Amino acid sequence: MRSRFLSVGTVSALALGLFATPAAAPLPDAVDFAQAAAAMTAAGDPFAGWAAEGRRFLLFDPAGDGLAVEVLGDLSTADRVAVLVPGVGTTVADFDRGLGGVARRAPAVQARQLYAELRRQAPHARVAVVAWLGYDPPDGWGLDVVTESSAAAGAAALTRFVARLVRERPAVAITLVGHSYGSTVLGLAASALPAQVGDLVAVGSPGMGYDHVRDLGTPARVWAAEAPTDWIRRVPGVRVLGLGHGTRPGTAEFGARLLPTVGVSGHDGYLDTGSATLPALAGVVLGTFVA
């Protein structure tokens, strides 16, 4: 049974351009969504229920920790797209419910929060939000968390996804948002991203793999949010012998543009209703926020 799930998911992944060279695939269309829906239905509940509800996934593969890429809005017409990249411990099993059953940690919930805020601020804007679990984050608190092998693989997959999008929509404006270890993925991808990626946002970040924003090698604006209540503040901003992720972007030393964090609770509350980061982030996506 697992091999059948993998084959369906892998077909969708190949169509999405995650594992293939980026030259061949067109923008995701109804075929991609249908393949992902078929894989979800075959996987049974709760995934089959997501498909039955009409939720749209470009990629779904339950093998191992799983891969899932959900779209809110219409990628084929959106002028502005936000892509959310999650961090440590995120699996397809927690994609909707959140790590430990805490909903605010769930990529799908965070994407819905951001999409709703975008619609609130700009009801007529053509926007889309992508919850992108297109890589395998580290599982917990082992050595993988302080090294960058998972982030490097994620950066390569994210770069391919973005490249495919801009080939078909060269005028689209893209904002990439990395939470926690997901921001390390962004940092390693930064220098290879196309000009359409105008903003990189690191929230609750342990580091983007570098010591200063200028080292990222990107003309994109780089933003960061680090709340006073976030335990990430206790992570040393170092990178020694391949361990650690460099200066935390939320510190003044890194040189990023800082987003407000009033109302943010803990490490996972940046996209909660009531946080100052959520509307500011929507403003970044829309091009209306000024630091």
Q: How would you describe this protein?
A:
The chain is 32% helix and 16% strand. It contains 8 helices and 8 strands; from the N terminus they run αααβββαβααβαβββα. An 8-stranded mixed beta sheet has the order 1-2-4-3-5-6-7-8. A hairpin with a 5-residue loop joins β1 and β2. α1 packs antiparallel against α2, α4 crosses α8 and α6 packs across α7. The N terminus is likely disordered.
- Profile the largest sheet: 8 strands, mixed
Q: Which class do the helix and strand fractions yield? A: alpha/beta
Biggest sheet: strand arrangement: 1-2-4-3-5-6-7-8
The helix/strand order is HHHEEEHEHHEHEEEH
Distance between the termini: 51 Å
Instruction: Give the number of helices.
Output: 8
Question: What's the shape?
Answer: globular
Outline the low-pLDDT stretches: 1-26
Give a count of the beta strands, DSSP E runs of length 2 or more: 8
Radius of gyration: 18 Å
Question: Helical proportion?
Answer: 25-40%
| Overall pLDDT level | 86
Strand content: 15-25%
